[in-house]
Structure formats: C-alpha cells, structure tokens
Amino acid sequence: MEAEVKRTWAEPYKIKVVELLTMTTREEREAAIREAGYNTFLTRSKDVYIDLLTDSGTSAMSDKQWAGMMLGDEAYAGSENFYHLEAVINEYYGYKHFVPTHQGRGAENLMSQILIKPGDHIPGNMYFTTTRLHQELAGGTFVDVIVDEAHDPDSAYPFKGNVDIDKLDRLVQKVGADRVPYISLEGNVNMAGGQPFSMANLKELHGYCCSHDIPIMLDATRTIENAWFIREREDGYAHRSVREILREICDLTDGCTMSAKKDALVNIGGFFACNDDEVFRKAQNLVVVYEGLHTYGGLAGRDMEAMAQGIREATTEEHQAARIGQVRYLGEQLRNAGIPIVSPIGSHAIFIDAKQFLPHVDQDEYPAQALAAEFFIESGIRTMERGNVSAGRDPETGENRRPPLELVRLTIPRRVYTQAHMDVITESVVDVYKRRDQIHGLKMVYEPEYLRFFQARFEQIP
Ligand code: P71
Fold first, then answer.
1. 391 C-alpha to center of ligand 1: Å?
2. C-beta 186 within 6 A of ligand 1
3. How many whole angstroms from 448 Cα to the centroid of ligand 1?
4. DSSP type of residue 47
5. Which of 66, 111, 171, 345 is most deeply buried (CB count within 10 A of its CB)?
6. Is 221 a pocket residue for ligand 1 (Cβ < 6 Å)?
7. CB–CB of 262/55 below 8 Å?
C-alpha cells in the first residue's frame, strides 16, 4: 500500500545542516545591481538574500546523496557509479542506452549534432534557449507547435504543455517528414510557466509520429514534475504512482536529453538517453570529443552517485507533493494579493506577467528585465527575466523577437527555502507592485552574440 500523503504540503524531511544568509542595505543593493548592468545573472551570490534565479543545480541534497558522494569511484574508466546510475536510469526512465554529460546542454549538443542535418526543421512544445541554440548551430530551424493557450498567461488550461497536432501536421505537410528529424517534447514546459503535457496528448502525438516515422525526443529535465501533474489532473491517473507515470511517458518516446540539475536533485550533471543502437553508438563516439569518456561524460564518479540517489528520491509522491505544494503556496499568496501571475501555477516557479505589472513600459525597454532588477533592489531577491531579452533576435530580420510572454521567473530551488521565506517573497513583490508607476524601462548597452540574456548589460532609462 502507498504511504499516506498528508493533505498539507509539509516537507517530508527535517533539516540537518543550514547555510546562513546575508542581508544588505538598499544602498548596497542599488550599487550592486548597477554594477551588474541591471542583469541579475551578473550579480554576486553574496549580495543575494533569497535566490530565486533558478532551480537549476540549487537543490539541497539529502544525507543519502552526500553519503553517496563519499562512495565516488573516481576512476577514468568504468566507474562503479556509472553502473549504478545506468541501472537507475534504466529502471526509472526505461531507455536502453545512456551517456552522462556535464549538464543538459551537453546532451543537447550531442543529440543535435547526431540527429539534425542542415535545413531540417525541429518542432517543439515551445523553445528553450539552449535547446534551440543547439538546433540552430546544427543547421536546423526550431518551429513552435505548442497549443495556443501556452502563449496566453491568463488561460487556465490545465495542460498548456500540450502539442498542437494540427500545427505539427502543417509543418510536416509543408517541409516533408524526412526534413523533420524528431520532435522535441519538453515536460513541464519551462518557458510557458512550468506547464505539463497530458498523457492523452502524448499518446496522440505518439500515434501521429509512428505513422510519419518521426521520433519523439523528450526534454526530461522536469518530467518527474510533469508526471505529478498528470497524477493530479488527468482522469485515470490519481492512483498511479509517479514512477509508473514517468515510465509510461518515457515508453512513448524514443530518447531524451536531461539536465539532472532540476528534477534529479543534484548540483551538476545530465545525460542523453535513447533506445536506438546506432544513435547510441554515435553518442558514445561524440561524447568523448565534448564531455569525457562515455562512462563519466564530464562528471566525477561522486556526481553520478548523487544523481542516482536523487532520481530515487525525486520519484516519490512525498517529494513531489511538498515541492509542488510549496510553489503553489507562494503562487496563491501572490495571486490573492492581486499580482498578475501566469496560470495555472507551474511546478518549479511563479512567473509574474511583466506586461501587466508594468503596462507603461514598451517591450523593447525590457519590462521583465527592469522588474527583476527592482525585486533585487527591494529586498535582495534574485529572479530571472524570461521575455524579450531571453528570446533574443530573429536570425532573419535581426529584430527583437518580442515574445507574447514577458515574464519574471521566481524559481524555487528544491528543499531549500521555508514557508516563512515564501511569505517574505510575497511581501517584497507586493511592495514593488505598490510603486510600479515609478518603475522605468531599460536600455541595452552591451549585447553578446549567443544567449545574450546571460551577459547583456543595461542602463536605466531616466
Ligand atoms: C533554468 C535552466 C538553466 C538555464 C539555462 C539557460 C538559461 C538560463 C538558465 C536549463 C534547461 C531547461 C530545459 C527545459 C534544458 C536546459 C539546459 N534550465 N532544458 O531553467 O530548463 O540544461 O542548464 O543543465 O545545461 O534555470 P543545463
């Protein structure tokens, strides 16, 4: 029988080690963000009070994971930890083959180079920055085939991560199935606000792809969290375990890239997995060029051990109930205070709608970037822009992409902050909201060529 999951989202762990936080003055924060060119990626962690920049690599590991770190078999070849991880990936994700990579984009690089030929089109349920860049570097073009609801921050549709099969079919009709090397399917779509696809949609997609001979490659980064939403929201899944749902998802797909820094509760790591023997052979061959030998792929043995244990912990109902419960608690508080946030509340973050928060700031003055800077100034809370800066420029026109979603992401690290921290975050956001009329946009004064949001610099428009 399944262990009882309490109605509240109380944490299924107790705290054994703590890390002290620093607090700064408003003057110090104003100086820090100015020096950082109003880009939260360029601020220093020592100046941050509550770090909501990302849920990537920021989780707290368990005592069992730390114990696993001591079991690191730091051999160049054939580390024991590789075989432990292989067994866990095979059991929980079910793919036949895998190669470790240093993180998700390492896996994306391998997969894109192996599967994409110049001139190919790669449909996906919304872009992710690094994923799309690797597709483009391999000569491909990303095509968005997510349902329209995903682009509407106010739509309460429960499966905004779904693929619009008609959009996919239109692309396939236009370019031909042989120019579509695979469809890229992301669980709990990050850029849409952490929104899941449904099993029904995946089954339909699977049927379509089988009949057109197009593989489905999963971005498994937050797919365990997607499995939890299927359990919560989809008919027939309430009594299925997270592990069973995860396996069902993976069994309907042909392989995956994974940033283990999210779902898998580790500070570094990733992998590429697949069922096809030939694709695997190529991945094993390429991984030695970019990452390291195929039994460590850029990771230490201890990192692979921590990942194996993290996957076991992340696939429990207790973990997901607390994880998603905490994010929902914050989201509901913000919503009750009248803050415009993306609906439904996703699994890894609250996304504030900067277009509604700062309606007076034009999108080319980067409202989400400006708002992220204000949250930092207000209380040392570090968040991330996910809007016009992240979307970058259209390679053909050179213009800003001006995406429909102009968001600030308040990302919640797993097992790190408490309910009181969630309350402080709400208070801070509300205080900024009260003075929103006085907030101005930004001007970009330095723009890097690739993934500009990481290092771009801005000045405040007076
Ligand atoms: C996140 C990140 C980390 C990040 C990456 C790029 C810009 C800003 C922040 C990383 C993901 C992800 C998905 C769905 C692949 C990666 C790359 N997310 N797919 O959300 O969310 O993985 O960072 O391990 O290379 O803060 P990697």
1. 14
2. yes
3. 18
4. G
5. 111
6. yes
7. yes
